[in-house]
Design a protein that fits this description.
The protein is of the alpha/beta class. The protein folds into 2 domains: 254 residues, Aspartate Aminotransferase, domain 2 (3-Layer(aba) Sandwich); 134 residues, Aspartate Aminotransferase, domain 1 (Alpha-Beta Complex), CATH 3.90.1150.10. Helix content is 38%, strand content 15%. It is built from 13 helices and 18 strands. The strands form 6 sheets. It has a 7-stranded mixed beta sheet with strand order 2-12-11-8-7-3-4, with helices on both faces. A hairpin with a 4-residue loop joins strand 5 and strand 6. Helix 10 packs across helix 13. It starts with 8 loop residues before the first strand and ends with a helix. Bound molecules: pyridoxal-5'-phosphate (PLP). The site of pyridoxal-5'-phosphate (PLP) has 15 residues, from helix 3 and helix 4.
Amino acid sequence: MVKPVLPLLPYGRQSVDEEDIAAVVEQLRGDWLTQGPAVRVFEEALAAITGASYAVAVNSGTAALHLACLAAGVREGDVGITSDITFVASANAIRYAGGQPLLADVDPASALVTLASLEAQVEAAARLGKKPKVLVPVDFSGAVADLPAVRALAERTGALVIEDAAHALGATYTDPARPGETLRAAGCVDAHMGILSFHPVKHITTGEGGAVTTNDEALYRELLDLRTHGITKDPALLERNDGPWYYEQRTLGYNYRITDVLCALGTSQAKKLPRFLERRRAIAREYDAKLASLADFVTPLAVRAGVTSAYHLYIVNLVQRPGESLAQVAARRLDLYQRMRAASILPQVHYIPVHGQPDFVRAGLGGGSYPGAERYYAGCLSLPMFPAMVDGDVDRVVDVIAAARGAG
Ligand SMILES: Cc1ncc(COP(=O)(O)O)c(C=O)c1O
């Protein structure tokens, strides 16, 4: 008998509809392909979503991190602290600016940095004779890091906080010190800057794209200049003024501009964000309910109290059996991964601990002890999670997990 071919079910996928396509086509027919008004419109949409006063759209989340580190004053010889479980870009941005990233361990249940692990890295910085210039907490999988705790630590150490909210557009959290308030990811209530990514698997997409958010006007102006070669035309800042055409490069910046074409797509996508989030949260609830009976085999990533996740990812971790080594957990994760692939499901692993990446090790930035990250990494698996999933998709995934559990 011929096996029926199942549609591929990836871990993430963009949702682009005819309305988005029409918005892009209209932009292509207009006067501005780049540096036009559509950028500002997209930035205003991002400010409205996050609640931050300002948003600066750029051509990737990585560029956003780089500019945020530069605007925060990271320079040669500085140190910054981020998470060991993140996409490498969070740590690379500190390196681009000339700084040394120190990697904080995570709570294996949530994959978020803990206050204790951040404090341990502040002490590691002190051993180097330094205070961290930036703390870069990562809102993992859509769940906001403990930003009030990070902010308190930053105030004690004099660091600036850059919230890596690439996974968290639309997520919210609460702070016991601010009863009744709902705080938003990248809203910059507890951070000096937030960064977003619009890569296709994210909540809204521009293909490639990103943004920095802030409530600080001086940082905003700095970010605008850095996005375009460090050039300003602001008469108040010029050292001399040769005429209306005149500009000055005041600092070394980049071309990190995003095009108007992509911003037209971003603005169109942003209108759908509430629907996308609702769908992601409904899928997460379905997984939670259906995986409850497999709780001796897999555990969904823990979401901190007070946080409403934006569910960029839906991650489970294999339960470690008594006496089982992490290598044995990892072997069972590989088995589960392969069973899914055989069923046309394409899960993913987010992320390989940064401290073990060969380039970090060779640069002397690896090493150290990361029991939380190692435990998390051994068993984690990102299951399909995207708005266009249809009825029955979650069952397809859960059935494979149940079969893997049954096989021992
Ligand atoms: C946590 C995190 N930070 C930063 C980035 C970088 O974003 P981009 O791919 O848009 O450069 C990503 C991308 O996946 C990410 O997951």
